[in-house]
């Protein structure tokens, strides 16, 4: 298989709606997420991560099981078994995460779990679902939003630079005389039939009138000569 074929196969979507590359990425994350998450930074999680709502659309059950297992591990570490007593409590928290943060990357959520476990966020009182959601919002404000704004500024600067380059190019071509003026467009007052029926009939009537006017003097002259 040559490079072109391999590129096409990578872009070809599977029945789940993902490309083969995306499928491999998600499969690896679901099967061996702890190894993949080792040493991952917020920048890497944002740039290389898998959007949560896309992952849920492709593999909803498996993604929720992953989040459930990691949340259960987090609650045990924080000794929050009183607030998360049953699997239903954990499942409700996972559902809330999926509903409130669909645009976060799956790796970003797991990174936030790790930061909570490492004590990077101050937890007041019991660790509840509300506290968990506040930690995710804090992570989003500190990392995700900052990275998005930075990328937006970079893209805006690229567009401005491209516009300036185009302006300079046009000026240089004008100075060198290589930029030819556009061809003049002929003004057409008559659009031939069948494009415009009314114009056609008006033109026909105008031609008949002009023909009559052209022949009328000749008829008058012939009449005067006959009388003589």
Summed up:
This protein has 228 residues and is mainly α.
Which secondary structure elements does this structure contain, and how are they paired or packed?
Blueprint: H1 3-11, H2 20-31, H3 33-36, H4 42-48, H5 52-77, H6 87-100, H7 106-117, H8 129-176, H9 197-227
Indicate the radius of gyration in whole angstroms: 37 Å
Q: What structural class do the secondary elements suggest? A: mainly alpha
Overall average pLDDT: 80
How much strand content do the residues show?
under 5%
Number of helical stretches of at least 4 residues: 9
Give the low-pLDDT segments: 1-10
The helix content, as a percent range, equals: over 70%
Note down, in words, how this protein is organized.
- The chain starts with a helix and ends with a helix.
- With 228 residues, it is mostly helical.
- It has a domain at 3-141.
- It has 9 helices and no strands.
- The protein is elongated, with a radius of gyration of 37 Å.
Notable traits:
about 230 residues, mainly alpha, about 0% strand, disordered N terminus
